[in-house]
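Per your request, structure below.
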Protein backbone atom coordinates (compact mmCIF):
# COMPACT_ATOMS: atom_id res chain seq x y z
CA UNK A 1 0.00 0.00 0.00
CA UNK A 2 1.30 3.45 -0.93
CA UNK A 3 0.59 6.02 1.77
CA UNK A 4 0.68 9.71 0.93
CA UNK A 5 -0.17 12.67 3.09
CA UNK A 6 -3.92 12.74 3.68
CA UNK A 7 -4.76 9.98 1.24
CA UNK A 8 -4.56 6.26 0.67
CA UNK A 9 -3.63 4.99 -2.78
CA UNK A 10 -4.68 1.40 -3.40
CA UNK A 11 -3.89 -0.01 -6.82
CA UNK A 12 -5.76 2.14 -9.33
CA UNK A 13 -8.30 3.30 -6.74
CA UNK A 14 -7.74 6.41 -4.68
CA UNK A 15 -9.59 6.42 -1.39
CA UNK A 16 -8.80 9.99 -0.68
CA UNK A 17 -8.23 12.35 2.00
CA UNK A 18 -9.14 15.37 4.01
CA UNK A 19 -12.17 15.51 6.23
CA UNK A 20 -15.33 13.78 5.11
CA UNK A 21 -18.16 16.16 4.24
CA UNK A 22 -20.16 18.29 6.64
CA UNK A 23 -23.27 16.21 5.92
CA UNK A 24 -21.77 13.37 7.95
CA UNK A 25 -21.00 13.10 11.63
CA UNK A 26 -17.57 11.99 12.71
CA UNK A 27 -13.87 12.45 12.73
CA UNK A 28 -11.09 13.06 10.26
CA UNK A 29 -10.01 10.70 7.56
CA UNK A 30 -6.56 9.23 7.33
CA UNK A 31 -4.87 6.46 9.30
CA UNK A 32 -5.97 6.23 12.92
CA UNK A 33 -4.11 4.98 15.95
CA UNK A 34 -4.80 1.33 15.25
CA UNK A 35 -3.62 1.62 11.67
CA UNK A 36 -0.47 3.44 12.76
CA UNK A 37 0.31 0.70 15.25
CA UNK A 38 -0.02 -1.90 12.53
CA UNK A 39 2.32 0.04 10.28
CA UNK A 40 5.06 -0.54 12.83
CA UNK A 41 4.43 -4.26 13.13
CA UNK A 42 7.14 -5.19 10.66
CA UNK A 43 4.67 -6.58 8.12
CA UNK A 44 5.69 -6.13 4.49
CA UNK A 45 3.51 -3.41 2.89
CA UNK A 46 1.22 -4.70 0.15
CA UNK A 47 0.95 -2.47 -2.92
CA UNK A 48 -1.77 -4.30 -4.83
CA UNK A 49 -5.57 -4.03 -4.75
CA UNK A 50 -7.04 -4.19 -1.25
CA UNK A 51 -8.18 -7.47 0.23
CA UNK A 52 -11.88 -7.76 1.05
CA UNK A 53 -13.16 -9.30 4.29
CA UNK A 54 -16.90 -9.63 4.82
CA UNK A 55 -18.05 -10.73 8.28
CA UNK A 56 -21.77 -11.45 8.59
CA UNK A 57 -23.41 -12.00 11.96
CA UNK A 58 -26.61 -14.01 12.03
CA UNK A 59 -29.63 -12.61 13.91
CA UNK A 60 -27.85 -9.49 15.16
CA UNK A 61 -30.17 -6.53 15.61
CA UNK A 62 -28.64 -3.07 15.64
CA UNK A 63 -30.09 -1.83 18.92
CA UNK A 64 -28.21 -4.46 20.95
CA UNK A 65 -24.76 -3.14 19.94
CA UNK A 66 -23.07 -0.38 21.92
CA UNK A 67 -21.97 1.64 18.89
CA UNK A 68 -25.59 1.70 17.74
CA UNK A 69 -26.99 3.11 20.96
CA UNK A 70 -27.18 0.34 23.58
CA UNK A 71 -25.28 1.75 26.56
CA UNK A 72 -25.45 -1.58 28.39
CA UNK A 73 -24.20 -3.77 25.53
CA UNK A 74 -21.13 -5.92 26.03
CA UNK A 75 -19.78 -5.45 22.50
CA UNK A 76 -16.31 -3.95 22.96
CA UNK A 77 -14.85 -5.25 19.69
CA UNK A 78 -17.70 -4.05 17.49
CA UNK A 79 -17.63 -0.70 19.28
CA UNK A 80 -13.88 -0.36 18.75
CA UNK A 81 -14.27 -1.32 15.10
CA UNK A 82 -16.94 1.36 14.67
CA UNK A 83 -14.41 3.90 15.96
CA UNK A 84 -11.96 2.72 13.27
CA UNK A 85 -14.49 2.65 10.45
CA UNK A 86 -17.66 4.16 9.04
CA UNK A 87 -20.83 3.28 10.94
CA UNK A 88 -24.16 3.16 9.12
CA UNK A 89 -26.76 3.87 11.76
CA UNK A 90 -29.76 3.08 9.55
CA UNK A 91 -28.82 -0.06 7.64
CA UNK A 92 -31.58 -2.47 6.65
CA UNK A 93 -31.60 -6.09 5.68
CA UNK A 94 -33.55 -6.86 2.49
CA UNK A 95 -34.86 -10.10 4.00
CA UNK A 96 -35.87 -11.69 7.28
CA UNK A 97 -33.49 -14.63 7.35
CA UNK A 98 -30.02 -15.63 6.27
CA UNK A 99 -30.50 -17.36 2.92
CA UNK A 100 -32.29 -14.56 1.00
CA UNK A 101 -30.32 -11.92 2.86
CA UNK A 102 -27.01 -13.34 1.65
CA UNK A 103 -28.41 -13.89 -1.84
CA UNK A 104 -29.17 -10.17 -1.98
CA UNK A 105 -25.78 -9.30 -0.48
CA UNK A 106 -23.97 -11.54 -3.00
CA UNK A 107 -25.82 -10.12 -6.01
CA UNK A 108 -26.73 -6.50 -5.25
CA UNK A 109 -30.33 -7.46 -6.02
CA UNK A 110 -33.42 -7.74 -3.88
CA UNK A 111 -34.13 -11.36 -2.92
CA UNK A 112 -36.94 -11.73 -5.46
CA UNK A 113 -34.76 -10.32 -8.23
CA UNK A 114 -31.92 -12.68 -7.28
CA UNK A 115 -34.40 -15.57 -7.34
CA UNK A 116 -34.10 -16.49 -3.64
CA UNK A 117 -37.11 -15.99 -1.38
CA UNK A 118 -37.40 -19.46 0.13
CA UNK A 119 -35.15 -22.24 1.43
CA UNK A 120 -35.57 -24.25 -1.79
CA UNK A 121 -34.62 -21.40 -4.15
CA UNK A 122 -31.36 -21.00 -6.06
CA UNK A 123 -29.62 -17.81 -7.19
CA UNK A 124 -30.56 -17.24 -10.81
CA UNK A 125 -27.89 -18.78 -13.05
CA UNK A 126 -27.44 -15.62 -15.13
CA UNK A 127 -26.90 -13.37 -12.10
CA UNK A 128 -23.21 -12.68 -11.30
CA UNK A 129 -22.23 -13.03 -7.64
CA UNK A 130 -19.69 -11.07 -5.63
CA UNK A 131 -17.11 -13.89 -5.39
CA UNK A 132 -17.43 -14.54 -9.13
CA UNK A 133 -16.77 -10.91 -10.02
CA UNK A 134 -13.86 -10.62 -7.60
CA UNK A 135 -12.38 -13.87 -8.90
CA UNK A 136 -12.47 -12.42 -12.41
CA UNK A 137 -10.42 -9.49 -11.09
CA UNK A 138 -7.73 -11.78 -9.71
CA UNK A 139 -9.04 -12.29 -6.18
CA UNK A 140 -8.88 -15.56 -4.24
CA UNK A 141 -12.37 -15.99 -2.73
CA UNK A 142 -12.73 -18.07 0.47
CA UNK A 143 -15.86 -18.78 2.51
CA UNK A 144 -16.08 -20.08 6.08
CA UNK A 145 -19.62 -20.68 7.33
CA UNK A 146 -21.27 -22.75 10.10
CA UNK A 147 -22.57 -26.27 9.59
CA UNK A 148 -24.69 -26.43 6.44
CA UNK A 149 -28.35 -25.46 6.70
CA UNK A 150 -30.89 -24.88 3.97
CA UNK A 151 -31.95 -21.70 5.74
CA UNK A 152 -28.38 -20.38 5.92
CA UNK A 153 -25.40 -19.89 3.63
CA UNK A 154 -24.53 -23.31 2.24
CA UNK A 155 -23.08 -25.16 -0.69
CA UNK A 156 -25.72 -25.39 -3.35
CA UNK A 157 -28.25 -22.84 -4.45
CA UNK A 158 -25.50 -20.88 -6.18
CA UNK A 159 -23.84 -19.66 -2.99
CA UNK A 160 -20.62 -21.55 -3.62
CA UNK A 161 -20.16 -20.07 -7.11
CA UNK A 162 -16.83 -18.29 -7.53
CA UNK A 163 -15.22 -19.50 -4.31
CA UNK A 164 -11.91 -21.35 -4.39
CA UNK A 165 -12.73 -22.81 -0.99
CA UNK A 166 -16.15 -23.04 0.67
CA UNK A 167 -15.81 -24.57 4.13
CA UNK A 168 -18.93 -25.49 6.11
CA UNK A 169 -18.06 -25.77 9.77
CA UNK A 170 -14.66 -26.59 11.22
CA UNK A 171 -13.46 -28.16 14.43
CA UNK A 172 -11.11 -25.25 15.05
CA UNK A 173 -13.88 -22.68 14.80
CA UNK A 174 -14.89 -20.49 11.88
CA UNK A 175 -12.72 -17.51 12.82
CA UNK A 176 -9.61 -19.55 13.61
CA UNK A 177 -9.89 -21.53 10.39
CA UNK A 178 -10.59 -18.43 8.29
CA UNK A 179 -7.58 -16.64 9.75
CA UNK A 180 -5.31 -19.60 9.05
CA UNK A 181 -6.62 -19.70 5.47
CA UNK A 182 -5.99 -16.03 4.68
CA UNK A 183 -2.49 -16.24 6.13
CA UNK A 184 -1.78 -18.96 3.57
CA UNK A 185 -3.61 -17.31 0.65
CA UNK A 186 -1.96 -14.96 -1.85
CA UNK A 187 -3.22 -11.39 -1.92
CA UNK A 188 -5.62 -10.08 -2.95
CA UNK A 189 -8.16 -12.35 -1.25
CA UNK A 190 -11.87 -12.14 -0.51
CA UNK A 191 -13.02 -13.76 2.72
CA UNK A 192 -16.59 -14.40 3.82
CA UNK A 193 -16.84 -15.40 7.49
CA UNK A 194 -20.35 -16.04 8.76
CA UNK A 195 -20.96 -16.39 12.52
CA UNK A 196 -24.14 -17.76 14.01
CA UNK A 197 -23.63 -17.07 17.74
CA UNK A 198 -26.65 -14.77 18.08
CA UNK A 199 -29.06 -17.20 16.41
CA UNK A 200 -31.41 -19.03 18.73
CA UNK A 201 -31.50 -21.12 20.82
CA UNK A 202 -29.35 -18.55 22.59
CA UNK A 203 -28.61 -20.73 25.60
CA UNK A 204 -26.56 -23.14 23.46
CA UNK A 205 -24.03 -20.35 22.98
CA UNK A 206 -24.35 -18.58 26.32
CA UNK A 207 -22.99 -19.72 29.64
CA UNK A 208 -25.65 -19.64 32.32
CA UNK A 209 -25.82 -21.26 35.75
CA UNK A 210 -29.59 -21.33 35.70
CA UNK A 211 -31.96 -21.32 32.73
CA UNK A 212 -35.68 -20.92 33.25
CA UNK A 213 -37.30 -24.31 32.48
CA UNK A 214 -39.83 -22.57 30.22
CA UNK A 215 -36.95 -21.47 27.97
CA UNK A 216 -35.68 -25.04 27.92
CA UNK A 217 -39.18 -26.24 27.01
CA UNK A 218 -39.44 -23.60 24.27
CA UNK A 219 -36.23 -24.86 22.72
CA UNK A 220 -37.36 -28.48 23.08
CA UNK A 221 -40.59 -27.73 21.23
CA UNK A 222 -38.67 -25.89 18.54
CA UNK A 223 -36.36 -28.88 18.08
CA UNK A 224 -39.21 -31.39 17.72
CA UNK A 225 -41.21 -30.38 14.64
CA UNK A 226 -43.54 -33.35 14.98
CA UNK A 227 -44.92 -31.67 18.09
CA UNK A 228 -46.43 -28.79 16.10
CA UNK A 229 -48.90 -27.17 16.34
CA UNK A 230 -49.12 -25.19 18.55
CA UNK A 231 -46.32 -23.01 17.25
CA UNK A 232 -43.45 -22.97 19.81
CA UNK A 233 -43.01 -19.20 19.48
CA UNK A 234 -46.72 -18.53 19.99
CA UNK A 235 -46.62 -20.74 23.07
CA UNK A 236 -43.54 -18.98 24.43
CA UNK A 237 -44.90 -15.49 23.75
CA UNK A 238 -47.97 -16.37 25.81
CA UNK A 239 -45.65 -17.40 28.63
CA UNK A 240 -43.79 -14.07 28.51
CA UNK A 241 -47.05 -12.11 28.47
CA UNK A 242 -48.02 -13.81 31.69
CA UNK A 243 -44.58 -13.33 33.25
CA UNK A 244 -42.49 -10.32 32.11
CA UNK A 245 -39.53 -11.68 34.08
CA UNK A 246 -39.36 -14.52 31.57
CA UNK A 247 -39.09 -12.03 28.71
CA UNK A 248 -36.24 -10.32 30.57
CA UNK A 249 -34.50 -13.67 31.03
CA UNK A 250 -34.52 -14.56 27.35
CA UNK A 251 -33.47 -11.02 26.47
CA UNK A 252 -30.40 -11.44 28.71
CA UNK A 253 -29.61 -14.75 27.04
CA UNK A 254 -29.76 -13.03 23.66
CA UNK A 255 -27.41 -10.29 24.86
CA UNK A 256 -24.99 -12.97 26.04
CA UNK A 257 -25.11 -14.59 22.61
CA UNK A 258 -24.46 -11.19 21.00
CA UNK A 259 -21.42 -10.83 23.26
CA UNK A 260 -20.12 -14.17 21.98
CA UNK A 261 -20.54 -12.95 18.40
CA UNK A 262 -18.64 -9.79 19.33
CA UNK A 263 -15.77 -11.88 20.67
CA UNK A 264 -15.63 -13.88 17.42
CA UNK A 265 -15.38 -10.65 15.43
CA UNK A 266 -12.67 -9.37 17.73
CA UNK A 267 -10.58 -12.52 17.43
CA UNK A 268 -10.71 -12.47 13.64
CA UNK A 269 -10.06 -8.73 13.27
CA UNK A 270 -7.20 -8.72 15.76
CA UNK A 271 -5.76 -11.79 14.06
CA UNK A 272 -5.81 -9.93 10.74
CA UNK A 273 -4.18 -6.95 12.41
CA UNK A 274 -1.45 -9.06 14.00
CA UNK A 275 -0.78 -10.75 10.65
CA UNK A 276 -0.37 -7.37 8.95
CA UNK A 277 -3.43 -8.08 6.77
CA UNK A 278 -5.86 -5.47 8.13
CA UNK A 279 -4.50 -2.15 6.93
CA UNK A 280 -4.63 -3.17 3.24
CA UNK A 281 -8.14 -4.60 3.56
CA UNK A 282 -11.67 -3.35 3.02
CA UNK A 283 -13.45 -4.84 6.04
CA UNK A 284 -17.23 -5.04 6.40
CA UNK A 285 -19.13 -6.28 9.45
CA UNK A 286 -22.90 -6.62 9.05
CA UNK A 287 -25.84 -8.29 10.70
CA UNK A 288 -27.60 -10.37 8.07
CA UNK A 289 -30.96 -9.73 9.77
CA UNK A 290 -32.15 -8.91 13.26
CA UNK A 291 -34.35 -10.69 15.77
CA UNK A 292 -37.74 -10.13 17.37
CA UNK A 293 -37.69 -10.54 21.14
CA UNK A 294 -41.40 -10.29 21.82
CA UNK A 295 -42.01 -7.14 19.76
CA UNK A 296 -45.12 -7.47 17.63
CA UNK A 297 -45.98 -10.67 19.45
CA UNK A 298 -43.06 -12.50 17.84
CA UNK A 299 -39.87 -14.31 18.74
CA UNK A 300 -37.35 -15.12 16.02
CA UNK A 301 -37.16 -13.58 12.58
CA UNK A 302 -38.32 -15.56 9.55
CA UNK A 303 -41.10 -13.74 7.76
CA UNK A 304 -41.47 -10.98 10.37
CA UNK A 305 -41.14 -7.75 8.38
CA UNK A 306 -40.71 -5.43 11.35
CA UNK A 307 -38.00 -2.96 12.41
CA UNK A 308 -36.38 -5.20 15.02
CA UNK A 309 -35.82 -7.89 12.39
CA UNK A 310 -34.68 -5.65 9.53
CA UNK A 311 -32.55 -2.98 11.27
CA UNK A 312 -28.99 -4.33 11.36
CA UNK A 313 -25.54 -3.06 12.34
CA UNK A 314 -23.24 -2.18 9.45
CA UNK A 315 -19.61 -1.06 9.80
CA UNK A 316 -17.16 -0.53 6.93
CA UNK A 317 -13.45 -0.08 7.65
CA UNK A 318 -11.57 1.26 4.65
CA UNK A 319 -7.84 0.67 4.13
CA UNK A 320 -5.77 2.75 6.48
CA UNK A 321 -8.83 3.58 8.57
CA UNK A 322 -10.00 6.32 6.19
CA UNK A 323 -13.05 8.07 7.60
CA UNK A 324 -12.55 6.55 11.03
CA UNK A 325 -15.34 7.44 13.42
CA UNK A 326 -17.73 8.71 10.75
CA UNK A 327 -21.42 7.96 11.25
CA UNK A 328 -23.74 7.93 8.24
CA UNK A 329 -27.42 8.35 9.01
CA UNK A 330 -28.85 7.72 5.54
CA UNK A 331 -31.07 4.68 5.03
CA UNK A 332 -28.94 2.05 3.32
CA UNK A 333 -29.39 -1.63 2.51
CA UNK A 334 -27.28 -4.77 2.41
CA UNK A 335 -27.96 -4.83 -1.35
CA UNK A 336 -25.58 -1.86 -1.46
CA UNK A 337 -22.60 -3.92 -0.33
CA UNK A 338 -21.79 -5.59 -3.66
CA UNK A 339 -21.54 -2.28 -5.60
CA UNK A 340 -19.75 -0.66 -2.64
CA UNK A 341 -17.08 -3.34 -2.39
CA UNK A 342 -16.55 -3.48 -6.14
CA UNK A 343 -16.27 0.31 -6.25
CA UNK A 344 -13.73 0.24 -3.41
CA UNK A 345 -11.43 -2.16 -5.27
CA UNK A 346 -11.86 -0.63 -8.73
CA UNK A 347 -13.97 -3.44 -10.19
CA UNK A 348 -16.88 -2.87 -12.53
CA UNK A 349 -20.27 -3.74 -11.08
CA UNK A 350 -22.84 -5.78 -13.02
CA UNK A 351 -25.61 -3.84 -14.72
CA UNK A 352 -29.16 -3.37 -13.43
CA UNK A 353 -28.50 -3.62 -9.71
CA UNK A 354 -30.96 -2.73 -6.96
CA UNK A 355 -28.05 -1.59 -4.80
CA UNK A 356 -25.69 1.36 -5.23
CA UNK A 357 -22.18 2.15 -4.05
CA UNK A 358 -21.93 3.74 -0.63
CA UNK A 359 -18.33 4.82 -1.16
CA UNK A 360 -19.36 8.38 -2.13
CA UNK A 361 -21.43 8.91 1.02
CA UNK A 362 -18.53 7.58 3.10
CA UNK A 363 -16.48 10.37 1.56
CA UNK A 364 -19.08 13.04 2.29
CA UNK A 365 -20.88 13.13 -1.06
CA UNK A 366 -24.63 13.17 -0.54
CA UNK A 367 -26.60 10.49 -2.37
CA UNK A 368 -30.15 10.98 -3.66
CA UNK A 369 -32.76 9.84 -1.18
CA UNK A 370 -33.89 6.29 -1.78
CA UNK A 371 -35.93 3.96 0.42
CA UNK A 372 -34.57 0.62 1.55
CA UNK A 373 -36.72 -2.33 0.44
CA UNK A 374 -37.23 -5.71 2.10
CA UNK A 375 -39.20 -8.74 0.94
CA UNK A 376 -40.39 -11.93 2.60
CA UNK A 377 -43.07 -14.56 2.53
CA UNK A 378 -44.94 -14.34 5.77
CA UNK A 379 -45.31 -17.47 7.91
CA UNK A 380 -47.90 -19.81 6.44
CA UNK A 381 -48.49 -17.82 3.26
CA UNK A 382 -48.29 -19.26 -0.25
CA UNK A 383 -45.81 -18.25 -2.90
CA UNK A 384 -48.51 -17.63 -5.52
CA UNK A 385 -49.55 -14.34 -3.91
CA UNK A 386 -46.01 -12.99 -3.96
CA UNK A 387 -43.93 -11.76 -1.02
CA UNK A 388 -44.90 -9.07 1.41
CA UNK A 389 -42.73 -5.97 1.04
CA UNK A 390 -41.52 -3.06 3.15
CA UNK A 391 -40.12 0.32 2.18
CA UNK A 392 -38.39 2.44 4.82
CA UNK A 393 -36.83 5.90 4.62
CA UNK A 394 -36.30 8.80 6.98
CA UNK A 395 -38.30 7.38 9.84
CA UNK A 396 -41.23 6.33 7.66
CA UNK A 397 -42.19 2.70 7.15
CA UNK A 398 -44.67 1.17 4.73
CA UNK A 399 -45.64 -2.51 4.79
CA UNK A 400 -47.70 -4.08 2.02
CA UNK A 401 -48.98 -7.67 1.85
CA UNK A 402 -50.38 -8.65 -1.56
CA UNK A 403 -51.80 -11.90 -0.18
CA UNK A 404 -54.16 -10.15 2.23
CA UNK A 405 -54.23 -6.67 0.60
CA UNK A 406 -52.97 -5.27 3.90
CA UNK A 407 -51.05 -2.01 4.20
CA UNK A 408 -49.48 -0.77 7.44
CA UNK A 409 -47.69 2.57 7.88
CA UNK A 410 -45.38 3.32 10.81
CA UNK A 411 -43.34 6.32 11.89
CA UNK A 412 -40.33 6.53 14.17
CA UNK A 413 -41.13 9.33 16.59
CA UNK A 414 -37.78 9.08 18.35
CA UNK A 415 -39.07 6.77 21.04
CA UNK A 416 -39.92 3.88 18.76
CA UNK A 417 -42.11 2.92 15.84
CA UNK A 418 -45.77 3.93 16.16
CA UNK A 419 -48.71 3.76 13.73
CA UNK A 420 -48.66 6.58 11.20
CA UNK A 421 -51.68 8.66 10.30
CA UNK A 422 -51.21 8.02 6.59
CA UNK A 423 -49.05 5.97 4.26
CA UNK A 424 -46.15 8.06 2.86
CA UNK A 425 -46.77 8.62 -0.84
CA UNK A 426 -43.09 8.34 -1.78
CA UNK A 427 -42.80 4.92 -0.19
CA UNK A 428 -45.97 3.75 -1.86
CA UNK A 429 -44.62 4.89 -5.21
CA UNK A 430 -41.35 3.03 -4.55
CA UNK A 431 -43.24 -0.20 -3.94
CA UNK A 432 -45.45 0.37 -7.00
CA UNK A 433 -42.36 0.71 -9.20
CA UNK A 434 -40.64 -2.49 -8.05
CA UNK A 435 -39.85 -4.76 -11.01
CA UNK A 436 -41.43 -8.18 -10.95
CA UNK A 437 -39.57 -10.99 -9.20
CA UNK A 438 -37.74 -13.51 -11.37
CA UNK A 439 -39.21 -16.96 -11.82
CA UNK A 440 -37.54 -19.06 -9.11
CA UNK A 441 -35.36 -22.06 -9.74
CA UNK A 442 -35.92 -24.55 -6.95
CA UNK A 443 -34.38 -27.78 -5.78
CA UNK A 444 -36.19 -30.62 -4.01
CA UNK A 445 -36.03 -30.80 -0.24
CA UNK A 446 -36.07 -34.06 1.68
CA UNK A 447 -38.06 -34.70 4.83
CA UNK A 448 -34.83 -34.84 6.84
CA UNK A 449 -33.69 -31.48 5.46
CA UNK A 450 -37.05 -29.92 6.25
CA UNK A 451 -36.91 -31.21 9.82
CA UNK A 452 -33.37 -29.86 10.23
CA UNK A 453 -34.57 -26.42 9.18
CA UNK A 454 -37.60 -26.64 11.45
CA UNK A 455 -35.39 -27.21 14.47
CA UNK A 456 -34.02 -23.71 13.88
CA UNK A 457 -37.48 -22.19 14.14
CA UNK A 458 -38.46 -22.04 10.46
CA UNK A 459 -41.76 -23.13 8.91
Amino acid sequence: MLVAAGSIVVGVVRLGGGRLGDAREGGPSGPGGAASAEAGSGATPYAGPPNVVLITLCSLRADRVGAFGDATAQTPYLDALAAEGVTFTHAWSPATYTLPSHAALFTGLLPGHAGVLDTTDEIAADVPTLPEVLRDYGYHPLAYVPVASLASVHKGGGFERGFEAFIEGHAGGIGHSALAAVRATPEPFFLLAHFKDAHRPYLERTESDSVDPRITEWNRRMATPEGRPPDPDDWFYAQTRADPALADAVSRLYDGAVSRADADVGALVEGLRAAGRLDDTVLVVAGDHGEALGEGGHYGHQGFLQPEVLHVPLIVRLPGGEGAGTRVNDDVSLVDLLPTLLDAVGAKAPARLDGRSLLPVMRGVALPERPAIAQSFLPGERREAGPAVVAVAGGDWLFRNPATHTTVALHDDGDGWVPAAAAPEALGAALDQLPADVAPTTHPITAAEKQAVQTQGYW
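Residues 1-43 have pLDDT under 50 and may be disordered.

Regards,
D.
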